[in-house]
Every structure is written in structure tokens, then in C-alpha cells.
Amino acid sequence: MGTKNMGFILGLIGFLFLDGLLLCMAREVHHYDFVLQEANFTRLCSTKSMLTVNGSFPGPTIQARRGDTVFVNVINQGRYGVTIHWHGVKQPRNPWSDGPENITQCPIAAGTNFTYEVILSDEEGTLWWHAHSDWTRATVHGAIIILPAVGKTYPFPTPYKEQTIILGSWFKADVMAMIQNSIETGSTPSNSDAFTINGQPGDLYECSNETTYRLPVQSGKTYLLRIVNAVMNEEQFFGIANHSLTVVAQDAAYIKPINTTYIMITPGQTMDVLFTANQNLNHYYMASTPYVDSGIRFPNTTTTAIVQYEGNYSASSSPFFPTLPSNTDIDSAQNFTNQIKSLASKEHPINVPKNISTRIYIAVSLNRLLCVNDSCDTGTGDRQAASLNNISFATPQIDILQAYYSFYLVGTGPGNYNNVTDPLSYNLVDPPEVNTINLPRNGWAAIRFLADNPGVWFMHCHLERHSTWGMDTVFIVKNGRYSNQSMLPRPAYMPPCS
Ligand SMILES: [Cu+2]
Question: What domain of life does the UniProt record list for this protein's source (predicted)?
Fold first, then answer.
């Protein structure tokens, strides 16, 4: 090898070393204060007091870069104990800050505070945070934006602007009182009164058209929407009139771009979506409406916001409306979901387990439980329940520790799972890496993950109603052989359990 070549290689090593050094130095630490406080909000002609973070609904956005650490000091000035969960943050070796109530910690009591250490690792894109105590997440949630590391770019053309779009549920009643009553009486929790986009129901609901969320756009520019489904109980179809969407990420992992006129997004999921303002100067609705694959009664309403072109023109008297699949259109939902594949590029590789050491079969179902001694007033003598392998989870009064996992969705299909033929169709090349999936009714899904994060972690249905009824379990992952495979030490202070 000539000296010239050698010099080049040495230079390369130096460069790589420097690059690594710069990356280490670039990992930032961020601090946020989250004050849990009651605040008055008026929607649908009625006013209520509800729990918020910093008085806003949706709550504040956390912004960081890949690999950063975020400290969030939660100061509880509300009336009851609450915890906060960082949905989709893997928290390597740090289950202590994951958040689900009585799973990894006891509630942060009213009048006390607790600081979460949110450790980002390979997540990139959009995630979200939400309260994880009963149904508090209805009003206590917000986005987590994770930008590429310093010096890195998106694996798609840089958008002109970005906007977070949070889909939510609005209940006129006090959500905590409603769910307490429903648990005590065995009755089915009330349906929401509206869906919201960035906290506003939009033009199709009473008393709402003055406050409809509006997104100003410049003709010819491309926008990135970071869409979070924070709805309590319903999957959603979402679209923008006359504009096609390009989905580029899901659950803070990049995917192969999907061009579509609508998305189907499940509660808990996030999707990053590009659209270009390439239509005539006018006003266009973006809309979100439930997708329901069972025969149950659901709130059949639609929330809207307005994409509003800038410039001098007179807009149509009513904005154009998107064409979305019908609320029970299973094929459209599955067609969309089946298109999602990991980007699986050199920059963003995947690591789907190929050799499986433990197989776990879980049957997910809705059930009826007998009420003992007339303990409920459902009129039928039994109450609604939900289960995994026919066991309804009962949340303990002490904390079981939890850590966060994402997993690969390697297969899904209708009917009963066949453990001989169905694995033949698994996608082990570019399965999406997700933290929440849509499980088709009367169907199955196969997921794979490497149990490399010690702790106890909560696996549950993100339809709040089902989770309340017991469609939950915990996985316990033991420490590995070495200290770097073991849980970090317990923080000096954890909220006491009593
Ligand atoms: Cu969640």
C-alpha cells in the first residue's frame, strides 16, 4: 500500500473519530416544567374545568434531536395523583421514568412533583406524551418532536414548514368522574361528544366555527404534518380535500413513502405526512372521522380544520371537503395499513429478529363478567370486560416496573392464526417498526422484538375503554449478564405508594 493511500486512510479514521466526537458533544439536554393544573375550557357551548399541563389543550410540545435527553419536572397542582408517559420513547435501561400508573411508579400526588428523565435513543420523527392514570390522557397530552441529529437531514426533501396536528376526543362531562362512575356501575363509558384537531372541534359541530383550527399555506410549498392520534377510543380516517398525502414516518421510524388520499391512524400512533399546496388558491378542509370495524355504537361525527391558501382571492363560500372511506370500510383501512414498510435504508436500517427463542400466543377478546351481589346496575347482571388469554388484568395498587418497547409488525391477517402456513408470509425484509398496531377484528397480528431492555413493561390496548376493562398485561424482562444490560439504579426519589 502506497503512503498516499495510507495517509488517506489515516485521514478517514481521523475524520470518523472527529465525527463521533462531534456527535457525542452534540447530544443535548433539555429541561421542561410541566405544571398540572385545572383550567376552564369552553367547547360545544359548554364550559368545564379540566386537568391540563400549563393550562393548554393540547399540552406543550417537547422538541429535541435524536439521542438527546429531556428532563421534565412535573409539578402537580391538580386535585388528584397523575403520572405522565412518554409514548414510544424506548428509555434504554431506564424504566423508572416510563410512567404508567402503578406499573412503573405510583402517582405523583397532588401538591408534589417528580422529574422524569426521558432518554431518546434511535427514535426519529414524532412521538407524544400523555397522562397514564385512568382516563386523564383525554386532556393531558402533547407532541414530542424528534429532529435528526445535528448535521443529519430527513430522508425526504426538507419541507417548507412543519405543523403538529393532534387528533383528540372532547367530552362535555368531567372525564374522570365519568370513568369512575362507569367502573363502579359496570356501564359502558360514554362516547365522546366531539373529535378535535389541535383542540378545536371544527365547523361541523355546534358553537365551534369561530374557533376552527386554520393552517395557512403558501401556494407551491410543501408542508410536513406531524399527526398524533390522541383520540380515546376510535381509530381515525384522515385526509385533506383535493390534496394527496405522502406518509414518510410512523411511530418515530421512517417508512417507504406512501402516496395516498387518506390515512388510517390508530389511537396511540403517530404519522409524519407531507403534502404540497398545489391546488387553486382557496380553502380546503382537512377532516378526521372514526373507523370502526365492529358493530358497536360509535360517535359518528367528523372534526375539521381548514387549509387556507395565502394570497388575494375570494374563497368559495364553503371549503372543499375530502372524500374519506366510510366509517366501517375495513378494506380501505387494511389496504392502507398493509402498505406500511420500514424505510430499511443504509442510514436507517432495521434489525428484525430472525431466530425466535420464545413464542407467545395471546388471544385478545371482549367478554362479559358476572356481577357479584348486584354490584353493578347494567340491568343484565353482568358487566363488560376485556382480556388477554381470557385473563382480565387488574392493576395493582403498588408499582410494577415498566420499560418501553417498540416491535416489528411482521404479519397480519384475517381469521384464526395458523402457526404452520401464516409464518410463510411474514415480512422479514422491511416490516414497520412501531409501538402501537391495529389488530383486525377476528384477525391476528404477529410481532417480533428483541428482549434487550430490562424492566417490567406494560402491553395494553390503546382504546381506553378496552384497557379499562382489562385488555392489558405486563412483560417482565430480566437484567442481562452485564451491567450495561441491567436497569439503571433506582432514582433517589420515586413517588411513594399510598
Ligand atoms: Cu400511549
Answer: Eukaryota
Q: Given a cut of 90, is residue 71 above it in pLDDT?
A: yes
How many Å lie between the centroid of ligand 1 and the Cα of residue 131?
8
DSSP secondary structure string for all residues of 418-473: -TTTGGGG---SS--EES-----TTEEEEEE----S-EEEEEE-SSHHHHHHT-EE
Ligand 1: distance of its center to the CA of 85 in Å?
7
Rounded distance from Cα 266 to ligand 1 centre (Å): 11
For the chain, the domain total comes to: 1
CB atoms within 10 A of CB 124: 23
Does residue 420 lie in a domain region?
yes
pLDDT at 327 over 60: yes
In a domain, 386, yes or no: yes
Q: Does the residue 457 lie in any domain?
A: yes
Residue 234 Cα to ligand 1 midpoint, Å, equals 14
- CA–centroid distance, residue 466 to ligand 1 (Å): 13
For 349, residues 6+ apart whose C-beta sits below 8 A from its C-beta are: none
Residue 198 predicted with pLDDT over 90: yes
> Which residues are in the CB-under-5-Å shell of ion ligand 1?
87, 268
Task: Please give the DSSP secondary-structure letter assigned to residue 199.
Answer: T
Task: Tell me, in angstroms, the distance from the centre of ligand 1 to residue 383's CA.
Answer: 25
Q: Give the range of the structural domain holding residue 468, as residue numbers without chain letter.
A: 364-485
Decide: 344 and 430 in contact? Cβ < 8 Å: yes
Give the position of cell 406543550.
60
Q: What is the CATH number of the domain that holds 376?
A: 2.60.40.420
Evaluate the CA torsion angle 413, 418, 419, 421 in order and state its sign: negative
pLDDT at 392 over 80: no
